[in-house]
Every structure is written in structure tokens, then in C-alpha cells.
Amino acid sequence: MIYLIAILVIGGLFVSLAILLLVAERYLVRYGPCAVGINEGSSVLKVQGGGTLLAALYENKVFIPSACGGKGSCGYCKVMVVAGGGPILPTETPFLNRVEMRSGMRLACQVKIKQDMEIRIPEDLLNVKQYQARVSLVRELTRDIKEVEFDLLDPEAIEQRPGQYVQIQAPGPEGPVFRAYSISSPMYEKRHVQLNVRLVPGGIASTYIHGLKAGDPVVLTGAYGEFRLSEDPDREIVCVGGGCGMAPMRNIIYSLYRRWPDRSCWLFFGCRSTRDVFYLEEYRQLAKQHPNFKIVYALSDPLGPGESWDGETGFIHLAVDKKLIPGINRQAFLCGPPPMIEAVIDVLKSKGLTDAAIFYDKF
Amino acid sequence: MNPTPLWVIFVGSLFTNNILLASLLGMCSFLVCSSRVETALGLSAAVVFVMTCTTMLNYLIYYFVLLPLHLDYLSFVVFISVIAAFVQFVEMFVERFSPKLYYALGIFLPLITVNCAILGAVLFMVIRQYDFAQSTVFGFSAGLGWGLAILLMAGLREKMGYSNVPEPLRGLGILMLVTGVIAMAFMGFAGMLNVQ
To answer: A136 pLDDT exceeds 90?
Structure first.
């Protein structure tokens, strides 16, 4: 009897607290329908007020990057709020620098929609979509790098620029994880996304991708990334990659020669041994059609017995130093391990490139 | 019944029995939110308000619901739930009707749900057998005492930004030392009053 009373009383108390809160929420947290204008009238979302901006954008298929899921701990979901956002909250200040604060940058997961708002989002993010895809091709490039191609099913086409990446959703032990991979297929191939994935021992996503077979379903979001290829046809492009940092270069090179068949472009690629060389034959074919495309592969390890090699030897930044003449208007894209990137940046600066002309992706 | 006069409870919970410096309750938000005086002020205002109200609320629930039904062994669960629900309610209320106040202290309200000083004040109220008026004064002054401590700390930390703290003590180490020194300073008040 005594326990029954206890259960009833506690239950009654908790239920009445819950009801109180629900009633309060019903009448207090209602701001009616609000309009969220994006990029000065490029689109207007009609949403119910009271929720967070991030949730409202997600519901309307605007995918703002967010790694923590709206907890305010990753700081990725920055958007510019022009009007209607209220003052910056203490939960946001750790993620924003002074320039961002002054320009109205906010964390979308912390801003609540209480009135009509006007926000600005980079156009790129408006193009980010979630894709249902199917593996169409898996090919071994080297002993640990695989080329994986996905057919996009829903939506069927992707708008991407060379140098951009997609995030692959892989099943992890504690729920799905997202990992970024550069797109290696050229931008004009809109129905497919191709990646080069190196197997990282113990890596959740690379193990998952290496285990995929043709026909397997995959979920990916994209395209992300801010790199923009220079539109000036007289500007030389320098691509420097190492290890498995080939994917963005391949996208750049093919997209480039589709648009500017005579444009000058260098590809430097550093490998350890002949076993790590891939795509070389394909590029040589391409270079026959486009004489301004120059390919330099360099091996850093000594040749094994019986092997032959007609390219460069030594680290890749030495080859860059040797081949490039200074003082030419260039844009460079680097992708590879951090020591390589740093060495190459030093070399490129000595050739007259500015920081703004050098874009890199360290991993 | 507790015979302590109201003014003794008030002064006592500010100085001799400061809930943070004597009982060491509410340390987590004390350490995290004391880097700037402005933040500390917002948080202490919220703590004073919530502590006063939840002490009163829990007094009523304890003496009019739990005790008559001999359910006082469930008091911890009930107290903390009431605190959580109250904080939620206040947050919604403030956000709706006073955006200014919400931006000033509303953001600290969710933090307070898990502030053990709040639960501590409620439990002291039960242990010391305060009546309603005493509980109200106690809740208010314990909140003020907590605020006093965090404001002192925030003031010191703002100054400490310019001092050369030995490398191994930087961060949490020096905070703990400073807290200890403040607490010792407050022990100077001991014996002035006796709060029971």
C-alpha cells in the first residue's frame, strides 16, 4: 500500500510537472509563422517560429555543415544573420572571431527563429544535397588505394567544382560517421562521383569503403569546399600531390582541359616506389592531345632490383624546384601529407607565388 | 522548528556559511563561468532567482506533500525534478516576455539545473528545519553568497590575466589555489554568527 502511494504521488507530481511544461510550451514558445529570407530574396522559407535556425534550414533541405548535431560544440554551422537574429549569445562567442562578430556571423544551431529573418549563406552551401547512391565500380589502383565510383540515384546529378569534396556516411560503432573525400571525377560528369580511397589501418570510413562491392547502396552529401579554379586562361595551374592526394588533381586536370584545351598545367606527383604509381598512362594519353600538360612523377625510394623508371627521383618538392621557372602567373593546388605540403609551399613562394595563389589540402 | 532569527540566516549564509566557500557546492559553474565579471554577474542573478524560488517551491512540496505521506525518502528525486522543471519554465517565460533579460541571463538558466548549490540549499533547508520565511530568506541569501563568491573570483581572474602565473599552475591549478585562499579569508568570519 505504502509503495502504491509512493508510486502514485511521484507519478502524479512528475505528470503534473510535465503537463505544466507542455502547456507552457504550447502558449509561450509560439512565435507563429516566420519568413527566413536567404541571400537577399533568392529564396524565402516559411517556417514555424520557436525552433533553431539550423533545424529549420535542414527541414527545408539546406544542408549547413554540422558535426555535433546542433549542440553548439563544433562551430561549423556558421551563417550570416543580417536581420532578426538578436544579440550574439555567450554560447556562440567561443567560435566567432571579432571580424565574424562584426559581420553578423552566428551559429545556426544557437539562433532561434522568433521573427522574420534575413540570412546569408554561401551559394555553394545552397547546392549541397544529400544523395542516395549506388556503387558502380571498384578498381584497385595500388596495393592500398582503390578507385570507387558511385552512380547518383536521388538526386541524379551533382553540381561540383574541381577541388571540392563529398562526405561519405559510414556506419561506425557509435552511429554513423562522416568522412570527407575529394571528388576525382571531372565536374562535367554530373551523374557519377568518383573517389580515390586509401585504406587506413583501423579507419572506420576507409575500411567501410574498401569493403564495398558494385551495387551496394551509399549515402553521401556534397559538394563542399571553397577552392575555385582561376578563370584566367593565361594563368598556369600547378598541381602537386603525394601519397593518395591524387583525386582533386584528376578532377582539376580533366575539367580544365575540357574547357581550355591549350591551357598550361603542371602535375607533380610524389610516390615512394613504382608500386605506388597510378593514372600515369592515362595522363600520358591526355598529354598527347594537350601538349601544354606536363606530367612529373617522382619516386622517393631507391629503385628495386630489375625495375626501370624514366621519371624523376627524390622528394617531390625538389622536382617542383627543378622544373618550374620563377615569375610566371600561376595558381597552385596541393594535396598530400603535411611535411610535403610545407616543403612545396616554401618552393612555390620562392618561385613568386603568393599565399592567395596557393591552395592546399593537408591530411 | 529552528529558532535562528532571519537576519542571522541572511548574514550567515553570505559570510560564515557561504554555500560555495564553506560547503564547496556549485564548484563546476563557479570554475567555468568566472572568467569575466559580466558573465559572472548574469549567472549569479539567475542563481539568486532560481535558488529563492525553488527553495520556496520545494518547501511547500516537502511539507505539504512528501512529509504527510511519509515519502521523505524520495525527496532527492522530487527536489531535482522540481528544480529542472522550474528552470525550464522560467527559461520559456523569460524568453517570451523579456528578451532583454533572456539575453542577459537566460542562457545561464539551463546551466543552473545541474548546479549542485541549488539542490544543496534545498537540502540544507530540510536538514536545518527552517520554516517558510526562514527558507525564503535562506534561499535568497545563499544565492547571494554564491554570487558574491563567483564575483570575487571573476574580478580576480580578470586581474590575473596580467600576472605571471608559474607554468605548472596555469589554468585549473591556480583557480583551485585562489578559491582556497578566498575560502580561508572567509573563515575569518567564523564565530561571528552561528547558523544552524
So the answer is: yes
Classify the C-alpha dihedral A326-A327-A332-A334 as positive or negative: positive
Question: A83-87, A236-240, B191-195: which has the highest mean pLDDT?
Answer: A236-240
Query: Is residue B9 classed as helix, strand or coil in its secondary structure?
Result: helix
The enclosing H or E element of B75 equals helix B75-97
Closest of B169, B149, B157, B190 to residue B16, by C-alpha: B190
Closest CA of chain B from A38, distance in Å: 24
User: Residue B27 has which C-alpha cell?
Assistant: 564548484
Q: In the structure grid, which three cell numbers stand for residue A236, read together?
A: 598556369
- C-alpha dist (Å) from residue A211 to A39, A77, A145, A204, A287: 42, 32, 12, 11, 34
How many beta carbons lie within 10 A of that of residue A259, not counting itself? Answer: 14
Q: Which secondary structure element, helix H or strand E, spans residue A149, and what is its range?
A: strand A145-154
Kindly report whether the global pTM for this prediction surpasses the value 0.80: no
Quick one: pLDDT band at residue A363, thresholds 50, 70, 90? low
Under DSSP, the state recorded for A279 is: S
Q: Give SS3 for B82.
A: helix
CB neighbour list of residue A350: distance below 8 Å, 6 or more residues apart: A321, A326
Q: Rounded to the nearest 10 degrees, what angle do helices B132-160 and B172-187 cross at?
A: 130
State how far Cα A67 lies from the chain centre. 12
- CB-nearest partner of B65 from A9, A90, A112: A9
Residue A159 has pLDDT above 70, yes or no: yes
Chain A residues touching residue B39 (CB < 8 angstroms):
90
Structure confidence at residue A180 (pLDDT): 82
In this complex, do A17 and B74 lie within 8 Å of one another by their Cβ atoms?
no
Residue pairs between chains A and B whose CB atoms are closer than 8 Å: 51
* Cell numbers at A208, concatenated: 567501410
| Pairing state between β A43-48 and A33-38 | antiparallel
Q: Distance between CA A163 and CA B185 in Å, rounded?
A: 61
Whether the predicted pLDDT of A175 surpasses 80: no
**Exposed/middle/buried for A354, CB within 10 Å: 0-12, 13-18, 19+?**
exposed
Chain A residues with CB under 8 Å of B99 CB are 86, 114
Please say if the pLDDT value at position B78 is more than 70.
yes
Q: Residue A9, exposed/middle/buried by CB under 10 A (0-12, 13-18, 19+)?
A: middle
Instruction: Please say if the pLDDT value at position B79 is more than 70.
Output: yes
Q: Sheet containing A265-271: give its strands across.
A: A312-313, A293-299, A265-271, A236-242, A330-336, A358-362
Calculate what percentage of chain A has a pLDDT beyond 70. 97
Please tell me chain A's helix, strand, coil percentages from 3-state DSSP, rounded to the nearest 5: 30, 30, 40
Contact residues on chain B for A2, CB-CB shorter than 8 A: 70
Q: Which of A80-94, A254-268, A327-341 has the lowest mean pLDDT?
A: A80-94
Our measurement of the distance from residue A182's CA atom to the centroid of its chain's CA atoms, rounded to an integer in Å, reads 7
Domains defined for chain A, CATH in brackets: 33-123 (3.10.20.30), 127-224 (2.40.30.10), 236-362 (3.40.50.80)
